[in-house]
């Protein structure tokens, strides 16, 4: 099977690209569109390469793909997802696990990962770097593992927590030379961004996330753990819990017997289990406390799903190791049933292709109306916040001559004549802090369009979704 694993991974690659191409909904919604736009226009606007919200490393790697449109960005993520599966497969082999191919299957069939693989979310690149670092760690190339992990914060902010976990791992492994390399990403980006920000500490001073619980809310601390079918699917959920119990039992046994822990034990403890649980617990606490602009989105767990898949495979290896070797047929039947259940769960939970993004569909409808209306002059400055507006109207969102910030409308009463204001009930009152009443109280503005979905739909924080277009004559 080793010989054909590249061919085996071409099947999910083609599937993810096909799903993305015919779907109208993606895991990240408007965030997906914005991540694409940052990479699409990074060559025209180099500052995009240092935007911490957009994730600098994601922007950099996605530039060649994004030039082919949104579908190019979807291909980028699909490729990364399948490469991550390959790394999980190879890591499992190096760690001596039976049925290493099952690790790749458990990863790609985890419902949240399956869904995100046909999107533009940054979790997939994060998982790719993490799976690569785990692979290098399992091969005792600790310096390279440290270097890879050091760039995780420039894909997602949770990377700082993973760096800390790996640091403890390197101490346990006495891999002292690897420790300084954990700062490599921070040093490289601090120096590279200095030319733009004139601030060597720009990574700290320009952090984009502050307390936003009044916008995004909070919830129970077990929010992620109970989303069984949505995140892991029942097979992987059972396996990672079982794998955790078995590993803890093994660790306690070694401690009680005062036996020396192997290097592989520390790799499992810190690089794999540590990464997974620090991420899970961190997000659970952040959502519970209403911190760091958390929406409680389950998709974030896709970032550490490679580690989770290895934990699940660890459980399979331990359990099957106890079976009588003569029960070969029984073992094959169990593996087939497990594989079928995992794949079936991915499809029944997600039901691809993905449609039903009411907000995006209404934005497309409003954009098409405007392009065919007498108000479209081709050079109007458009004030908006929903990223899909830029795609529909074919404007460069980073060119102030083409795009105006909707939040500016709250105080700027001197916008150019002919300007268009594209207000929607999701971004308008929340991220842009512009309630619709603010626009109706501006006598110089003319309302030219209003639309609600045929089937009423609520949006962020509860109000009914609707779109208004205003024009300044």
Strands across the major sheet, in which order? 2-1-3-5-4
Please trace the helix and strand order, writing H or E for each element: HHHHHHHHHHHHHHHHHHEHEEHEE
Overall SS class: mainly alpha
Overall morphology? globular
Continuous helix count = 20
- The portion of residues forming beta strands comes to under 5%
Number of β-strand runs: 5
Helix content: 55-70%
| Mean pLDDT across residues | 93
Rg value: 24 Å
Low-confidence stretches: none
Largest sheet: 5 strands, mixed
CA(first)-CA(last) distance: 67 Å
Query: What's the domain count?
Result: 2
Structural write-up:
- It contains 20 helices and 5 strands.
- α7 runs antiparallel to α8 and α7 (123-138) packs antiparallel against α15.
- It has 473 residues and is mainly α.
- It folds into 2 domains: 2-350, no CATH class; 358-471.
- The radius of gyration is 24 Å and the shape is globular.
- It has helices spanning 5-22, 30-40, 56-66, 70-94, 100-109, 111-116, 123-138, 142-150, 159-173, 184-197, 202-205, 213-216, 228-232, 234-256, 263-289, 305-321, 328-350, 358-371, 388-393, 436-440, and strands at residues 382-384, 403-405, 420-424, 446-451, 467-471.
